[in-house]
Structure formats: structure tokens, C-alpha cells
Amino acid sequence: MKFRRRNSEALADLICGNLGSFEPSSEVEPKYFPYRSSSYITEFFQELDTDWVHDGSTRHRWVADVVDNILDEPHAGPAHPPEGFCRLIDHLMAPADALNEGPDRPNALRLLNEVLNREGYEAFYGDDRHCYLRHIDTNTVSVMRANPHRPLTTVEVQRREALAQFLDHCSEDELIEEVLVPLFRQLGFQRITAAGHKDKSLEYGKDVWMRYTLPTQHFLYFGIQAKKGKLDASGVTRTGNANVAEIHNQALMMLAHEIFDPETNRRVLVDHAFIVAGGEITKAARNWIGNALDATKRSQIMFIDRADILNLYVVTNLPLPSGALPTSTSPWALSNDEPPF
User: Fold this and answer.
1) 26: domain range?
2) Number of domains into which the chain is organized
3) pTM value?
4) Residue among 162, 276, 154 at smallest CA distance from 210
5) Three-state SS annotation for 214-283
6) What are the tens digits of pLDDT across the range 249-278?
7) Is residue 204, in this structure, part of any structural domain at all?
8) Which residues of 29-184 form beta strands (DSSP E)?
9) What pLDDT does 122 receive?
């Protein structure tokens, strides 16, 4: 991943604090980034857990070289900058470093986005008061090692509850189109194609198929069988639930039927199948499928239930679906359509 040199140097000027003036009478725009001398530049990069030490050369050019090196680190694709660069932006925009404005730093954010927009990115604050990057063309948000098992903030808990209420009343198509497709796209899957339920003629057990690119540039293909309610293994299934035996048959169809990838112009088999439920997947249902499949196919089936959906969706900082509004009035909460600042 490369930035044009003038943009790397413009970002370096922000890191060095070279813009603006502290003089109240000056016609130059006031400073919104702290001035960093040679030692403070070294400290800035040490706080990012890197080994860069300023060598005494021109500060903004040296920092631009470091930025270029960080951008060369491995990453998941053009919509996902390297994690080191995401951490750099978050550290640069720390609310505690605000100058001549409030902790939401609207002017600093404006100056930063003037640089990032030229490379197709946009910075914004999340509800956790961290600064994130969004790829403008794909609307993909870059997250730093999102951990769905970490403790959630108060606002994230409110967003989780709002999404849970949405899952209670949404249709199966809404679950797929408004929750699963954005979620898997954010997680790095490509060519996500939803079959839909209006025309089942070409579904063959798949509600969604998608592709994941390995670091070696090999492709793995995934299919999703989604059910809105609870997935159980009882002899008599309640209304709104789905029986695991039906899911088993659909999973076998999914794994046995080829899909056509128009980008590579060839037909391929699905490598792995996700069974996704908007409700709980009972332990008995998981065990039933495990016992019904032979050893070669057992590793191809993976499960995602309601709790997994809620946690993954919240920690990846995705906008809530239409119809699911958080109860929080916090100024740091993300709106459904636009970043807060």
C-alpha cells in the first residue's frame, strides 16, 4: 500500500505539529496538533511499540519515510490499511492531545481528512472515543484486532441491545441483507452474493456465498445457510425455530454444488459452510450435525449463533441496520448513516 509522497509529507506535518500558529493575532490558522521536536517524535513512535528513533534529519521528511514504511506492512487489501497505520492515526487523534478545541477535535479531524480523502480514506471517531479509518469507496471500516470476547463499553452494550431487538422482529432476508452481508464484508470476505428467498431456483442450500483471499493469494469459498430463529434438535420443532435435520440436508447440498466465480471465470466447490442462526444454536443441534457428518466433512461446518452475531457486529463498529436505533444520546455514539463529526 502506497500514499503519494506529498500526502505522506502532509500527514508527517500533522504528526510534527508544523501547521498553524499559537499567536492570537496571527492570520494563520491556530495549531490543532501539538508541536513535536526530535525527542518527542521518537517518543510518539515508541508509544506505538515501534523502534523508530529520529536521526536528527528534517523532521517531516523523516516522519514521511516512516509512514511509507508502515504502509508497506502486510495488510488484508486496499480497503484495509496495515494495523500499524490504523494505530498511528488513532494515537495522533487522541482526545487528550486536543489543542485550541474540544476533545472531539473537529478541526484536527478536518485537517487529517483533507490528507486522507486524497487517498480514498476518511477518519472518524467511534463511540469508544478512538479514531478509525473508513475506505470511502467500499465503506469498509478498518478495525484494530477486533475482539468479540472483550468487555463492551456502555454505548456498545446499548448498540448490542438495539441490534438484538432488531433480530427479534426482522425477516430472514433482512437478517441476511442488513446484518450478515455487511458483517462478512467488514470481516474481509469478498464477492459476497446473496441468493435471496424470493427466487429459490438457484439457491441449492446456500443463502449466501462468498470468497476469502489468503495471504498466499489462494481463494477459499464459503457458503452461508441462515435461519432467523433458534436451531434445535427436538422431535417437534416449535414455530419460529428450525430443525437441525433440515439444516444438515441444506449444508450437504451447499458443499456438493458448484458455484461460478465470475472474477476468476471458473466453477468451484464451496470449501466451508457457515450455519448462522438469529437465535440460539443448541448444543444438541451442534452434536447432531457432528455425529451425522463423517470426519472429512465435519471440519467444513462452522456455527455462528445470535451471541456471535451481536458481539462481532458491535466490536467491528458497523452502523446499525435501519430500524435498529441505539438508546444512547452520547455525543460519541455513531449515527446510522454518518460519522458523528
Assistant:
1) 5-142
2) 2
3) 0.62
4) 276
5) CCCCCEEEEEEEEECCCEECCCCCCCCCEEHHHHHHHHHHHHHCEEEECCCCEEEECCEEEEEECCCECH
6) 888 888 888 888 888 888 998 899 898 988
7) yes
8) 121-125, 131-135, 140-142
9) 93
